[in-house]
Prior knowledge:
The structure holds 2 protein chains of 2 kinds.
Chain A: H1 3-6, H2 10-36, H3 41-62, H4 73-84, H5 87-114, H6 118-126, E1 131-135, E2 141-144, H7 146-156, H8 163-172, E3 179-183, E4 189-192, E5 197-207, E6 210-219, H9 221-284, H10 289-309, H11 316-325, E7 328-332, H12 341-358, E8 364-370, E9 376-383, H13 396-407, E10 411-415, E11 421-427
Parallel strand pairs in A: 7-8
Antiparallel strand pairs in A: 1-2, 1-6, 3-4, 4-5, 5-6, 8-9, 9-11, 10-11
Helix pairs in contact in A: 2-3, 2-5, 9-10, 11-12, 12-13
Chain B: E1 7-12, H1 16-27, E2 36-42, H2 48-54, E3 59-63, H3 72-82, E4 87-92, H4 97-105, E5 110-113, H5 120-129, E6 143-144, E7 147-148, H6 154-163, H7 169-176, H8 180-194, H9 199-208
Parallel strand pairs in B: 1-2, 1-3, 3-4, 4-5
Antiparallel strand pairs in B: 6-7
Amino acid sequence: MTFHDITSSRTAVSLIQFYVLFLMISGVSIFVNLVEIRCKKIYMLWCAVLTVFAYFAEQTLLRIPDSEEGMKDIELAIRWMLFDMPLWECILIVVCVSLSYVLLIYRMKVWSREHISFMSLKEAIDTLPDGLCYYDDRGITLSVNMTMNQISTALTGEPLSDGVGFLEKIKEGRDSEDCTFVRSGDEPIIRLSSGEIYSIVYRCLTEGSNSINEIIATDITEEYNAAERLNRQNERLNKQKERLKEFGKNVTGLTIEKELLQAKIDIHDNFGKALLAARQYIRTGDGDRDKILDIWNTNVILLEHERSSAGKDIYASVMKAASDVGVGISIKGRLPAEEPASDIVMTALRECVTNTFRHARGDRLYVDVDDKDSLEYIVTMTNNGMPPVRKIHPTGGLGNLMRAAKAAGADLIIESEPVFKLILKIPRIG
Amino acid sequence: MEEHNTIKVLLVEDQDMPRQLFEMIIKGRVNGGSKYELLYSIDSASVAHMYCDRYDIDLIIMDVVMTDGSNGLDAAERIKTAHPDIKIIIVTSMPEVSFIQRARDIGMDSFWYKGRDANEILDIMDRTIAGEHVFPEDTPVVLMGETTSDHFTAAELAVLRELIKGGSNKEIGEALSISETTVRTHISSMLSKTGFSNRTELAIKARIGGLVI
């Protein structure tokens, strides 16, 4: 049976024509796709051959009902070759062509999966969280992704179409309704009204004589917000640190108060025990009378001393210490009575008494207090001992004095020549 | 040390009441008669050295923390260097653990925690003059939140000592020559042990309790 045998059936011929037409159109579509994805040339060539074959087959099939008069020789040759072909050969050819198309479609899909096409590149760039923009020296954009367009719309009110103009807007650093500049300058940082924060960088890329301008907007929202949180935490910690330092200045006094309170509590407890012991002795005669009286005596003396020591001259102890070691103190003017000036002067007096006795081998310390200035005391201390053999560097007790003076906002000057002189300038409070 | 009829004592204590009590004990008003002579009683460690240079002192009872900021341990170290024959007993009410260790390191003869029976000091004085070194076996325990101070390691206490100065982790690390991470670890450990909510609370409680000075 040959192909010619079935051409008498209009239905059969129509079906075959329709199928071959389908193959031809598919071939064209597949060819276009192959070209678009830039597949291997061998596949494109094979597809082209098949499509051309399908075309000629279609043309021949269309003219089956026509008479042979007027046909060209080539057309006649193809017609009779086709008509004489055994049917099974025709079917085989159709099947082979169909399978070839299927194979080409498969290869096309594999190729698309394994290779990047221009469209896939565009899709990928568009889905980036960062903004990208490339333009030439005239400002004509070559590639702008969606994120950059959003930024441009927020900043300028319209999508990015002029790269040069957009760059100028960025350099201007002027806020818009939907975009604020967190930082201006060479690498500005912008915040959109939707909350995203971008760091903008401009570069000019050159290769040979060609140059292309690039603007990249990097999404730093997370990092920026984390940095802000960290800054706030650091600020809070710094305030805590300052409060702790302030506390440290006062806590020594508090600790000493605590110690004193404990001593008073102990005396109170001892009084309680003494009362119980005295009562027991009076009632039953049990106990050591002398010991009980001793406890009473001790506690009373302690309390009397506590009462009498209130209101004592604050400089009494340093005066006594000087007197004990044979150093007299001559004071001109009136020593400060209020803190912190009195504390600093007392510390200075102790240091100078010690230095006069131990190092200068003197026996008199001269103190001059100038309180004429309502803003500060100027206290000068010298002695009648030997001058220092070398320049004095404030270490040890003098070092402590210097730190205490600085903490109170006072100035301390130590002169070593021609004689030792200590000068304190202490601001007056109130 | 030469034999004396009485042992000359210099008392260095800045608080009036404890100083008065010590004076009474030393002078024998408490126990009746004493082999000790209280030469001088002063309220600042900064002038103590002067007395040692001026007078023959056999024994010093030296408080550590003074109101005027002078440090009894510093003064005692200088005196010991210049006058090695003078016996020195360090006394304090602060449970700060570094005091007793430093006292040992600088060659102090004895150490006593105030607040215990005041008459103990006489026994310690006798033993010290006899040549004995009397140190307490343990330091007073301070309650710190949900734990006590004896549950802190030496490293933690060192970090705590710097923390109360208000330093950052970096500053603490630099002061102690350890990394910031190590500082953070120690602070976290102490917060976990004490149940305190933050480092500020930890520092304040430690300072007020006298655990670290």
